[in-house]
Design a protein that fits this description.
The complex is a heterodimer of chains A (about 300) and B (about 350). Chain A is an all-alpha fold. Chain A has one domain: MetI-like (MetI-like fold), CATH 1.10.3720.10. Helices cover about 80% and strands about 0% of the residues of chain A. Chain A contains twelve helices and no strands. By secondary structure, chain B is mostly helical. In chain B, strands 1-2 form a two-stranded antiparallel sheet. Chain B is flat. The chains are: A mainly alpha (about 300), B mainly alpha (about 350). At the A-B interface, helix 2, helix 4, helix 5, helix 6 and helix 7 of A face helix 1, helix 4, helix 5, helix 6 and helix 9 of B.
Chain lengths: ~300, ~350
Amino acid sequence: MSTKRAGEFLSDIDLRREKFRNRVFHGLLVAASLFGLVMLVLLIADVIWQSAQALLNYDIDLWNFLTATSSSRAGQAGFGASIIASLWLMVLTAGMAFVIAVGCALYLVEYAPENRTTRLIEANLANLAGVPSIVYGLLVLALIVNDAGMGSIILAGAIALALLVVPIIIVASIESIRAVPESVRDGSYAMGATKWQTVRQVVLPKAMPGILTGTILALARAIGETAPLIMVGTMLHATRYPSGPFASFSAMPTQIYNWTYQADRMFNGLAALGIVVLLTFLVGMYALAGYLRKRYETDGGSISNV
Amino acid sequence: MSTEPQSGSGISGDDSLEAAHEKNRRVRRALFGCAAITVVTTVAIFLVLFDNAAQYFFGARISEALFDGDSFIRTITFTEFLTGTRWAPDHSTPAHGVLPIVWGTLAITIGAGMVSIPIGTATALYLSEYATTGTRNRLKPILEILAGIPTIVYGYFAISFLTPVLVDGIATYLVNPVGQGLDSVSHLAPGLLEPLAAGMMGASVGRYSMLAGILVVGTMTIPMVSSISEDAMQAVPDELRNGAYALGATKYQVSLRIVLPAAVSGIFASYILALSRAIGETMAVTMAAGFNAKLTANPFDEIMTMTAYLVSMARGTTAVGTIEYQSLFAVGLLLFILTLSMNVLNDLLKRRFQEEYR
């Protein structure tokens, strides 16, 4: 190479341009990262603003809102029946999904041989996690609501939600069961324990905080799901408290959905208030999951240090 | 401890050893059953959708034909279904062309991808290459909240803020200048501008618009792109970066020419995941983009996605046995096949990037 070209390559102009390019690029990246943040702030501000407006413009009795059943008259409509229905859904969903998911995770980590069946189960999990939630609703609508003739009851909604969250809980459970050190299992075997005794009394208790955290996060997803419940045929107007798993119902998100479609403007305000209640539940669940994770993370750390 | 073996501990003698083995086998079978349920779910989804969709196409469910001897009559042909341009199975003069709602889904998916892919990738690059550990640890969880917010809240946000403030604002701004300037410019390119302007002006920005749907779905899928892309970028070995720096590359060159190509299969996997989520997204698109099955490219128009059709049918209680009820499953099957193929593709890409660096 000639010395002239080398001189050009190292000249100040190029360096300055490079520096400028770097700065512009950096700026673009920062701006893009802020987009999500701005949308999040706008979304939360909008919900708070709309519910504050509703409280100011209409004479809403908060206690009545939180305890009453819904009504076709906005002034009397409340969220209480939907809150109770959502709690029922959570309990039933958690019960069904937890057993299946932990069982599946234990099988995959502790028992499964390395063969085609196992690979099929693992590949299928990745697929299930990507199935749109509305499709689970369609499945339950056809199989349970109509073919089995159970009707649009809370249990049917809970089955749809359980199918939806099982893959999420399985992934979390597999991670925390794998995190239990092999030496702990070996210690148990050395004491003469059988495989199942080791799994049940040593591995599971150690993995439980992680499994519970995953379950709570999965339930946080389920509590906000609307589409599968609408497909299952949820009543869109919760005019009475659900009496049990076999009652028809409207959960929090479906009640919010219904209110946004009412002509009376006051219903839109009620929807915003409903969203605040729903988001409060979510924040509570995330906080609980975070607390569990933090609390047991330090314990787990001390074990692995030994 | 006592030298006497505890009963039931598994080492107390042949009998209880056999019992312990038997118990282990039973437990193993029960746990396998749990795992099998997940596979059964997939098979059940496919069979149930297929069975009910068969009634839509052939007038009888496969299960009915097998067990009750119902005969198949071809009622709706696949050609009509897949190529027809009008979708109105519930109309008095029914039409069974699924294209408009497939287009609605594609429009939302492509549009959302145009929002979440560049923004998500840039965010991932920032988090992985530029941000300090402190910033990264704070920003990443905040962004992940976006994916955790219920989609109905996004729908409400679209109705109460995005459409009235943003979409209306843009539409008024765009329509007025073009509309007023139409006479002076139209003789230059009449064929191009007139339909455009007419289309813009003809679109009355009402409660629903494609643009609002695109914005909310794009926003909620940003963390899927940014989180997974960032993981892929973090998996790129530092030797590659340091080698480039040693050759005199700047940070910007390292980001774009080393990290991005090296992490490309993981990054593409995140794109596929985000697009797959956008295809199946229901509440936000239903509430933001509306219920009008229409082949339109105007972002201010109301459209209908496949998921919005499902919701609109389920909302008004659709009676079992009607063609509307059967059409739910035909659309559901199509939706399931679409997302299934995306998931398989995503899985393949993810596996490739994991093999390369781990």
